[in-house]
Amino acid sequence: MKVRSDILRTYQSLHTWTGITAGLLLFIGFFAGALTMFSSAINDWATPPNYQLQQVESGKHDILLQHVLSSKPNALKGVTVSFEDGSSPISWYGHGSARGFSMDDQVWHATLNDQGEVVAELRHVNELSMLVDYLHRSAGIIGELGHDQAGVYVLGIAAFLYFIALVSGLIFLLPSLVKSFFALRKEKGPNRFWLDSHNLVGIASLPFHIIIAVTVIVFSFHDLFYGGLSQVYGEKPMFGGGEKHQEVTYEIRDLASLNEIKQATLTYAPGYEVKSVSLSRLTTEHPSATVMIVSDRTLMRGPHNDYVFMNPFTLEINSSSVTSEHGQQGVWGAIVTSFFGLHFGSYGGELGRWLYFIMGLGGAFLFYSGNLIWLEKRCKKQSTAQSRSSYFMANLTIGVTLGCAIGIAGTFAANKWLTLGDWNINIAYMWVYYTLFLATMVSSFTFGAARFSLIGLQLFIALCIAIPLNSLIALVFPSIGIWSPDSIVDLGVEIGALGFALAAFYALKRAKKRIYAGEENSIWYCPRVSKLRQAESPIA
Q1: In this structure, are residues 430 and 103 in contact, taking their beta carbons and an 8 Å threshold?
Q2: How open is the CA angle 184-190-192, to the nearest 5 degrees?
Q3: Cα dihedral sign for 408, 413, 415, 418?
Q4: Cα–Cα distance between 350 and 493 in angstroms, integer?
Q5: Phi and psi of 241, rounded to 5°?
């Protein structure tokens, strides 16, 4: 395919600068986003075994619910009944709410003891997966703008630049796409190798990246989009429903049974499984039952589930995030559900989650390698000392990428030990992450990108190894109070940590080779390290 050289240069420049501008923010979003594919597993792994209360036998949830509603007034505002093993049968917020990211939420958990009496305990919500999701949505940028984190809007702008980089990159790569798509030319130097790797990952996962870019823009600026659409729709609801109902005051004794709510849900959405029922505003004129349902065969609006909303007294379906033969989701509702499902990968079961996990890490690599390519090209143009801007970008790239990885790994490594203290564990998570992230940033600029890349990778490896090592300590010294995995899912988190350690070890080996044997005018050359070459065996 023949494209004029001046057009190619224009699109290449556009691709380079949009990528450089947004790349490091998007690295954090993609790296953390890949981990959110297993947020349920992370929560299970991070929560002490005795945190959840014992699940009750099938059929006893109604008995427990009636006890709680009659004796705990706060539960009337909102209470969740869970049918999943490993979860407390009933819970409700004592402080805070389920919406948003809050570090001081407290939740009551309740169950029935052997004598049929209600046992209730108040506990802080463990938000480790929410911290990871917060980084995914905001890149860790602190502050709020309106009712959302400021970082969400910043990441939305970065996603727009990211979309431009995708399109422009595809255009200038078209002439050589067929010839060089699967080529990884190591013998032509590091710049060509990084460029080939960057192109391979970008083109192979292009549909995924387009989906993520567009959906992030929509999520970040959805209020503006909805505001614009409201000018078209006026008072008519965009997402279906909206019919006026007669105002009625309900009595708790008339509440439908949980089994009736489940049956009404499955009749409306056959093929799904009911995971939980959340009841709210039970003593008002607008009571609601939010039924969490799961299916691996359809697009789901949430990361792991869909919802059906109904009146818990009349069993009338008000709305849902699914399309049903018994009700219409509405055109815009179906579009929004598609955006959510495509972004979260909430379809295809475990295989779909693993594919999104791999492509999420591939996206993080895409932004990291893009910065390296830019730096390598600048180094190639300069035969003597490198410019300050090259050193600055190299330090920033290593600081942000390793800072994010080290911060998350350190938080996971500290998790079990943090549960031993009498403090709000979610605030402790934030302290650990931001302390490590900022320390990494400062160290990268203090030691330089070349030298600190070795130090940082070694620290990341150590923290990843510490995650399963903590479980080994728990097995040897059970009296300490920390715990070891009690399920395959929990064990999978620790095996994943070892996988990251192995990948980092390979990266460390490559970095050592570059720093020890690199060109003296390169930003990746470190004189202090190079003096040690005589004392160390060469690394193959």
Answers
A1: yes
A2: 50
A3: negative
A4: 14
A5: 75, -150
What's the rounded Cα separation, in Å, for the pair 425 and 431?
10
How would you class 366 by CB atoms within 10 Å of its CB: exposed for 0-12, middle for 13-18, buried for 19 or more?
buried
Q: Give the number of other Cβ atoms within 10 Å of residue 60's Cβ.
A: 14
| Angle at which helices 150-173 and 128-138 cross, to 10° | 60
DSSP secondary structure letters along 387-399: PHHHHHHHHHHHH
- Cα distance between residue 24 and residue 364, in whole Å: 9
Res 539: pLDDT: 42
CA dist list (Å): 193 to 182, 183, 189, 273, 530: 11, 9, 6, 48, 23
**C-beta of residue 76 within 8 angstroms of C-beta of residue 282:** yes
pLDDT of residue 230: 47
CB 209 within 8 Å of CB 164:
no
pTM: 0.79
Whole-number pLDDT of residue 147: 62
Stretch 233-259: mean pLDDT: 65
Per-residue pLDDT reduced to its tens digit, 426-465 = 889 999 999 999 999 999 999 988 899 999 999 999 999 9
Tokens of 493: 């988190």
Hunting for tokens 């009636």 — which residue is that?
Answer: 66
241-326 CATH choice from 2.60.40, 3.10.450, 3.40.50, 2.30.30: 3.10.450
Look up tokens 């390698």; give the residue.
369
* Least confident range of 127-131, 143-147, 492-496: 143-147
- The answer to whether residues 202 and 252 touch, using CB atoms and an 8 Å cutoff, is no
CATH 3.10.450 in the chain, residues? 241-326
Residue 123 CA to residue 133 CA, distance in Å, equals: 21
Task: Decide: helix, strand or coil at residue 181.
Answer: coil
Give residue 540's pLDDT. Answer: 36
- List the single range of 69-78, 144-153, 270-279 with lowest mean pLDDT: 144-153
Cα angle 412-417-422, degrees, rounded to a multiple of 5: 120
CB 130 within 8 A of CB 103: no
In the block, which residue shows the tokens 């509405």?
A: 330
Using alpha carbons, select from 227, 222, 99 the residue that is nearest to residue 156: 222
